[in-house]
Amino acid sequence: MMKVSVWIILALALVDLAIVVNGDDSEKTVVKTVNGKKVCKRGWECLDWSEYCCNETISDFFQPYQFENLFSKRNTPVAKAVGFWDYQSFILATTSFQHLGFCTTGGKTMQMKELAAFLAHVGCKTSCGYGVATGGPLAWGLCYNREMSPSQSYCDDFYKYTYPCTPGAEYYGRGAIPIFWNYNYGAAGDALKEDLLNHPEYIEQNATLAFQAAVWKWMTPVKKSQPSAHEIFVGKWKPTKNDTLAKRVPGFGATMNVLYGEQVCGQGDIDAMNNFISHYQYYLDLLGLNREDAGPHEYLTCAEQAAFNPATSSPSASS
Fold first, then answer.
1. Same domain, 140 and 281
2. N or C: which end of the chain has fewer CB within 10 A?
3. What mean pLDDT, rounded, does the chain reach?
4. Is 90 exceeded by the pLDDT of residue 45?
5. What's the distance, Cα to Cα, between the start and end of the chain in Å?
6. How many other CB atoms sit within 10 Å of the CB of residue 104?
């Protein structure tokens, strides 16, 4: 059973979120200096002392109507997760990560670009859009919250001592950036303090947790020696000589690489890659940014990049 204390915190946060959504800008930024460095707290949304909490929080620049614009078809009758996803669940999920820099790094333009990039991954991975879909193929993000026809239970016995599969549990894809396999559910559960190894179904039952798992995946490196998608995007990753030889450069393209590897990258100009790029550019438009803000083509694409984690070396690279 999920922890009662977590639900109390979320309930209190919902009350505060309602105040913010209704336009009461009563949140105050509290500032102090630690070892000569400015750190802040900001209301319920950025609770831990952090340099990132000195910046605007996500709800300052991302409003409910914008969420509705980005995911306008998610509650149509043909969608597969009607009534599941909402703005409040997303904002609540981000409160676990804003103090770590999620969409709070850099100036407002960078913050909004990271939001667009992250949500582009979400929209693309959960879309049921197609070429002639009403509203266009990019309007159908958050159509799903789970894999509809799993081909297997995604139990890998290689991890039987660290993340053993629970009898009867199925570790198929769930969430806003779907998680697959027992070891990924186990690692996400450890980080989020939820028993996802024994109860992977929690992710398809709670939208806040489903968004939290996605942000955790964005913020967490697949391997300790590698950058996270967040670090790549906000410029905290400095490519090594090997990265340069592999044509890996900072930008949206490398976020696809580190999350999905050869499924999307290093295959030339394929639809699987271009769908992510199209979602990113579309979301930039809807958030009022210029597509030029995405950077030059080589930053957008991963068509020629060698995978961070080739399929033969790491099963978790693309799941």
1. yes
2. N
3. 90
4. yes
5. 26
6. 27
Specify the number of domains making up the chain.
2
Give yes or no: residues 202 and 225 share one domain.
no
CB 225 within 8 A of CB 201: no
Lowest average pLDDT, out of 26-30, 218-222, 269-273, 282-286, goes to 26-30
- Please check whether residues 68 and 202 belong to one and the same domain: no
Q: Is residue 1 predicted with pLDDT exceeding 60?
A: no
What is the C-alpha separation between 263 and 256, in angstroms, rounded? 9
* C-beta atoms surrounding 187 within 10 Å: 21
Question: What residue numbers bound the domain in which 169 lies?
Answer: 150-207
Q: Which amino acid is at 84?
A: F
Q: Read out DSSP for 97-112? A: TGGGTTTTSSSHHHHH
Closest Cα to residue 179, out of 290, 266, 256, 259?
Answer: 259
HSE-up (13 A, CA, CB side) for residue 98: 27
- Report the pLDDT value the prediction gives residue 319, as an integer from 0 to 100: 56
Which CATH number do you get for residue 201? 3.30.20.10
pTM to 2 decimal places: 0.89
- pLDDT score at 295: 87
Asked if the structure places residue 7 within a domain, the reply is no
Residue 179 domain-assigned (yes or no): yes
Token reading at 129: 């859009």
CATH number for position 74: 1.10.530.10
